[in-house]
């Protein structure tokens, strides 16, 4: 599992608490996608399992370390939804928690990792809560969550919340420069579009994905001056929600430009398009447009079995009516 330099500070701080016998039995890590929280938790897990750690480093040689490296340690549990499902039920939680009350097979620590605590159903969360309230000896729970506020308050209250904050933009741009051939403006755009998460920015800079984003950026001003429905072919893809996000970022940048905040735009590599949109739409129209697109994206992500093509078509027609009310109301 790839390690990232911005994880070092959190790793040392968390393990220093364990070394001082003050480690919390349930650690809830809040992190954006692309921050590497899975690597951080893996590193912490290896140290907790290691029989002869060297400071904050696991030895890599003891039997427990070898089992961890092989992914076969019997006292390390990964709790997540089955493939194709998005919820983690009570049976899976009970199956693991019952094992925790038995003696560790390797005679050391027992670690439970939840890569996405948000997958827990309410019943599963309550079942886990009982174990968190009275954890077995030398048992550690490591949870990840993008939005801890969506978890049960009682579950959050039993955990130590650790926010894995993105590194500074300068540090992230240096890291991206070492890992990507993209120009500075492109790296900056990818980083800002990824909310500052460097690994997510690197993934966005992948040639195929970046070309898709470029196509959206080029199509938007043209559609605003011509046929808005032409955006349907650009948006109607499996990653439609992401593409809508790119449209929203351009609209927000247009408002920033109108207000004299050009240095803060998220798409510095597409400044020409941002200026063009800013000249085409007044701030009030951009605000109303953003509200429409955010609602559309939310439905796309959360409505079960949504008809993507129909939803996008309705949104584009509504947007056209918003921007051109005269033509929308004229008789055929």
TrEMBL record:
Classification via NCBIfam families: holB, PRK07993.1
InterPro entries the UniProt entry points to: DNA_pol3_clamp-load_cplx_C (IPR008921), DNA_pol_HolB (IPR004622), DNA_pol_III_delta_C (IPR015199), DNA_Rep/Repair_Clamp_Loader (IPR050238), HolB_lid-gammaproteobact (IPR048731), P-loop_NTPase (IPR027417)
Domain (DNA polymerase III subunit delta' AAA+ ATPase lid) ranges: 167-205
GO cellular component, one term: DNA polymerase III complex
GO MF term list: 3'-5' exonuclease activity; DNA binding; DNA-directed DNA polymerase activity
Self-association state and partner proteins as the record states: DNA polymerase III contains a core (composed of alpha, epsilon and theta chains) that associates with a tau subunit. This core dimerizes to form the POLIII' complex. PolIII' associates with the gamma complex (composed of gamma, delta, delta', psi and chi chains) and with the beta chain to form the complete DNA polymerase III complex.
PANTHER family in alphabetical order: DNA POLYMERASE III SUBUNIT DELTA, REPLICATION FACTOR C / DNA POLYMERASE III GAMMA-TAU SUBUNIT
BP terms from Gene Ontology: DNA-templated DNA replication
Residue ranges of domain DNA polymerase III delta subunit C-terminal in the record: 210-320
Entry keywords, A to Z: DNA replication, DNA-directed DNA polymerase, Nucleotidyltransferase, Transferase
Species per Swiss-Prot/TrEMBL record: Erwinia sorbitola
Domain of life: Bacteria
Keyword Transmembrane helix assigned: no
Its job: DNA polymerase III is a complex, multichain enzyme responsible for most of the replicative synthesis in bacteria. This DNA polymerase also exhibits 3' to 5' exonuclease activity.
Annotated catalysed reactions: DNA(n) + a 2'-deoxyribonucleoside 5'-triphosphate = DNA(n+1) + diphosphate
EC number: 2.7.7.7
Top class in the EC scheme: transferase
Top-level taxonomy: Bacteria, Pseudomonadati, Pseudomonadota, Gammaproteobacteria, Enterobacterales
The keyword Transmembrane helix appears for this protein: no
Protein name (Swiss-Prot/TrEMBL): DNA polymerase III subunit delta'
